Amino acid sequence: MTILVTGATGNVGRHVVNELIQAGQRVRALSRNPAKANLPEGVEVVYGDLSAPETLEPVLQGITGIHLITFDGGKGFAPLTTGPEIVQLAIKAGVRRVTVLWNGEKGPMEQAIEASSLEWTHLHPVEYMSNALGWADSIRNEGVVREPFGHTLSAMIHEADIASVAATALIEEGHAGKSYILTGPEVLTVPEKVHAISSVINREIRFVELTRQQARERMHQSGIQNEVINFVIEWHDNPPEYGYTVLPTVEQVTGRKPRKFAQWVEEHIGDFS
Ligand SMILES: NC(=O)c1ccc[n+]([C@@H]2O[C@H](COP(=O)([O-])OP(=O)(O)OC[C@H]3O[C@@H](n4cnc5c(N)ncnc54)[C@H](OP(=O)(O)O)[C@@H]3O)[C@@H](O)[C@H]2O)c1
User: Domain tally for the chain?
Assistant: First the structure.
């Protein structure tokens, strides 16, 4: 039995690979650039591009379970349009079980999976803790965080906890047909997150709240599409309740309490100092 991890070099996928290896599973990791994947020994790293399904046929040989990302890798997380072909190839290859990482909406991949014979589990994490890495440069260089939406509450989650749920759902029975909203163990505002980083790296960090217009301009300058900018602004102005409500799902599925933000910061001290 071999499990294929897509997005294996990404924020969540690296942890999915580690969790599966620790659980004694055989792992094949997909990357468009295997030479740069930098994954642990024992992982079979293979070339493949989810937006070019013909590259996946050899990759899927001998695979029984897949952890799937559902965006095409371009700017703005456009949903993969090749989902239906990927699902067909997976079924043909004998894949039985998949975990699917939420991409903000139910795209062609999710629809094809739900209509198929695959045992699927949808993973719907709220904000990743790793989004705080976007502050690393300004913290290191200026001791400042500039962000809009200081008041917005977030039950953000450690990527390793998303991965832990994914690995459990891929290995164990009982998770088919379930959609899990995944949160961390606490709800924090932006200034509270900044304070947590400041305490761990033992350096004062100023929080400067940007206006919506400044936030729009900054996202626009970094190449983000208008519809994504609108989505982000709307999300922060009217966050859905699940974005700021701590849920017991991670512990219920994995038997372990989700990690706190302070632990995530400890693991990333080098990025901030
Ligand atoms: N950030 C958040 O707060 C948040 C919250 C909820 C959901 N999400 C969702 O989580 C997902 C991951 O987001 P992220 O920012 O953390 O990204 P990420 O994991 O850093 O994404 C990059 C990964 O995707 C792989 N990839 C991209 N396009 C690919 C393609 N065409 N074929 C094969 N592999 C491809 C890359 O592999 P290679 O480069 O090695 O090929 C890399 O492993 C997105 O769907 C996002 O909407 C994010």
Answer: 2
The set of protein residues with a Cβ atom below 6 angstroms from ligand 1 is 6-13, 30-33, 49-51, 69, 71-73, 77, 101-104, 125, 127-128, 131
87 and 135 share one domain? no
Tell me the residue range of the domain where 87 lies: 2-125
Which residues are bridge partners to 71 per DSSP? 79
Whole-number pLDDT of residue 74: 76
- Cα 102 to middle of ligand 1, angstroms: 10
For range 221-244, the mean pLDDT: 88
Domain assignment of residue 191, yes or no: yes
61 assigned to some structural domain? yes
Distance from Cα 50 to the centre of ligand 1, integer Å: 11
Q: What backbone phi and psi angles, to 5 degrees, belong to 218?
A: -65, -45
- pLDDT score of 75: 66
120 and 133 assigned to the same domain: no
| Domain membership flag for residue 228 | yes
- Taking 90 as the threshold, does the pLDDT of residue 9 lie above it? yes
The pLDDT of residue 49 is above 80: yes
At 131-170, the pLDDT tens digits run 999 999 999 999 999 999 998 999 999 999 999 999 999 9
Q: 236 and 220 share a domain? A: yes
Closest protein CA for atom 19 of ligand 1: 10
pTM over 0.85: yes
Which of 4, 5, 9 is the best mutation target for the ligand 1 pocket, counting ligand atoms within 8 Å of the beta carbon and taking the most? 9
**Mutation probe of ligand 1 site: the residue of 14, 17, 69, 82 with most atoms within 8 A of C-beta:** 69
